[in-house]
Amino acid sequence: MDIVVCVKQVVDTEAALEVDAAGEVVTEGQTLVIDPYSEFAVERAVQLTEEVGGTVTLLCVGDEGCAATVRHGLAMGAHEAVILTDEAWRTRDAAVCAAQLAGAIEPLEPDMVMGGWKSGDTAAAQVMGRLGVLLNMPVATMATAVALEDGTARVVCEVDGGTEAVELPLPCVIAAQQGLAEPRYPSVRDVMQARRKKIEMRDAPAVEVPKGGGVRVVSRTLKPPRAGGRIVEGSVEEAVAATVRLLAEEAKVLA
Fold it and tell me: What distance in Å separates the CA atoms of residue 213 and residue 95, rounded to the nearest whole number?
């Protein structure tokens, strides 16, 4: 079982995000880490190869600054890593990123391609679906469980109000949701061994996205600061009536 896992470097999810005038997420001065959804995918991919054998190859579109992020995945148990260098990678849209990844994945002929169903910064949730189309592979997204049986992938996916169980023939694309696997915490030994693993630096494939086939972000804005609460006084009946009135007239969440 040879698995390619697409990983991304993002701002630490515990940090407060900032957006510049162009609508891009500010990374200067921020702690950069492996995307948590990518991390779920790495963990489950490593587990699958521990169960049935094979290799896990990490694939990251980025630059030399992404090496620490990729080494974290290697410390978790991935066997190989490739960074597709593109100095403008942070400003690339999902269509370009997916095409770059597809161009690098196709000659590898993996049994499975994994990654996060969205990223923790822009949360576009487009790359993995586009990869499935470009690679002509079936896709399961928001996956919370993956098992292998008789040459197929049995996947449980999160859907509105519940879950959906699907079977996908290999090769396939799996987009990880939180809950797919609990990422291991690499030991000091794992970290030291990861430092000795080579990270291949390769130019990102030159791609052309058909006119109208790209994704244009019109704008990004941060959520407004959370407003303070309000204490409604009076008897239970008075408080309930006042709350309903405030929800309808001020919050406008009731018709």
Answer: 7
